[in-house]
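Task 17 of the worksheet. Students: predict the tertiary structure of the chain below and write it out as structure tokens. Keep your answer in the requested format; marks are given for formatting as well as content.
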Amino acid sequence: METISRLHINKIAGSTGIPPDRIEKTARLLKSGATIPFISRYRKEITGSLDEVQITGIRDMLSQLEELDKRRIAILTSVEEQGLLTPELEKAIQNAPTLTELEDLYLPYRPKRKTRATVAIVRGLEPLAKIIMEQGDVDISKKARDFKDIEKEVCTIEEALAGARDIIAEWINEDSRARARIRLLMERDAVIYCHVTRGKEKEGQKYETYFKWQEKAREAPSHRILAMFRGEKEGFLKIQIFPEQTAAHAILEKLFLKNSSACAQQVQMALVDAYKRLLLPSLETEMRNMLKEKADKKAIRVFGENLRQLLLAPPLGQKRILAIDPGFRTGCKMVCLDEEGRLLHNETIYPHPPTGKKGPAMAKIQSLVNAYRIDAIAIGNGTAGRETENLVKRIRFDTDIVAVMVNESGASVYSASDLAREEFPDYDVTVRGAVSIGRRLSDPLAELVKIDPKAIGVGQYQHDVNQKLLKQALDDVVMSCVNAVGVEINTASKQLLTYVSGIGPALAESIVEYRNTTGPVKSRRELLNIPRLGARAFEQSAGFIRVAQSENPLDQSAVHPESYDLVELMASDLEAGVADLIQDKALRQKIRLDQYVTNDRGLPTLQDIMGELDRPGRDPRQQFDLFAFDQNITKMEDLREGMVLPGIVTNITAFGAFVDIGLHQDGLVHISELADRFVRDPAEIVTLNQKVQVRVLSVDTARKRITLSMKDSKDLQQGKPADQNKKQ
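Model answer:
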């Protein structure tokens, strides 16, 4: 197995506070190919019950340290090949704790393109630069005269001095002390100055806030940083980041000026040039990258938290569903789905303008509900969504029918995807979109894994952040959610199976092919018969796979097959069967866990097993809860300041939360309006899909902006009657 650096382990331990031995054992599991959900769930004795967040942190820090070591080796090799590696320099490079400090040490030895300094060196002015840098009491003009050389294009004393200053400026720029101290000044005191690009005032109106903006860089929140950088990328804004110039000059003067001699005056001129031309642009780029990285991490964290809450939204469950993708001119596309989400029927109705055939549309919906024994109706919340909901609620059904508005963000992306074409080759995008809406009501997790998370609409500047880091974070979230819920092997889609621990795309394809040719999988043990699914993949995946048709009740639980013998021993000791243990709580209460502790299976695993025996295959998601918008509010013009309305949180950002109140435009609850107390992070107060009461603060119909408040939470929870809202 790949060796793990003890230095890395100690660094991670110092950063996280996790004992080094736990970090080393966790790192070894990761290096062996074990997934984070598997380690977190089934290797608690080895890791000391580290959770997924801690294990992910260890993985990421280990990766960063390994990348740093690769760069360290590359730099040592480069300097050694130049014949310039001294014992002191090698020690400094080996001990550099960050990539920034490593690159500072390498800067003087980095192969250079043509610069003013390299030109001056070619012209033979480096000895003069060294004389000036000594700042001795010499006649510098007389010294410079000796370096005049017409053939080398040094025709005057001033040209000789200017060339020497260029060399000194580069020395100052490459000095690791100077870079470290100016960098510290930048991080502490630099200000972001943002202004509109000349001539772009009208076109870039959406960035008007930043047309004349400045603030301390270290105090700028992530959403503002990303907004300004996006505006600059689109050509509407110009950004500069720099500290107070005199403070920077003072730092350099303290480092490089020895006296007030004529030579020192030349050094003074060189350091002013070095700062303006070399140091500041270089460190401003660094500062931009640092701010962007910090903002990216915050935005990715917000996106990941939102995605987790969306994926783990309560499922309605296996019901027969009539799904409607609403529309005006093109009509409302309807599909009927069975309990497994299979398409049974589709057709289109035209209840809204310009056609306006409400009566026939209502009759058709009622007919389909009866014909296909529909349990629930899913209505997309896009264009004509509220109008369609009102239409459905006017229908008198023979049985109790649940009608639910479903967030359709990303449904159009799925409907036009290769996956949707593969699943429904004989149907157009409108049918596929309606199917996606219906399946989201039944099981949001199973359906949303088919869509690129960036298209679901719960992020903050998701297209502006580091896409590699975003993909890694979102893949982690999806895998975590899928494995937390568990996957029924015989009904799961290929996409859902892909995220099961240890499976991946190729094995998911193999599982689907096996089901199609051999029939349903009848036990977890049968998984080993699937081509390319070997012992390692079985170990990683089996605990997260459910087999409803299995004769072994443990195959429907999160108990890993490696612990079946232990459960069977518990049952045998009580002269009972495994099924008896699951069904009889009194029997389970007789088990003394300490009797079954071994070196490999300690109390954490035993407690997890008992939890599963109590509720086999329990779904961690909450129970589905019906919700209704205020029926009197169907368009922005219906809103009045002071109204209190029910809503659903649809997105959480660093600056607040967006709430759907039943219109096509979500309202914003700014972070300052989330609660009566100070809130640092909106996630402290609200979660995605949370049902809330909000007060309307302002309505800007021209700009399609609704400002809401959740303050005075006690009053808002009580709410106000719809007719009282209407009177306002």
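Marker's comment: The chain has a mean pLDDT of 92. The first helix runs from residue 6 to 16.
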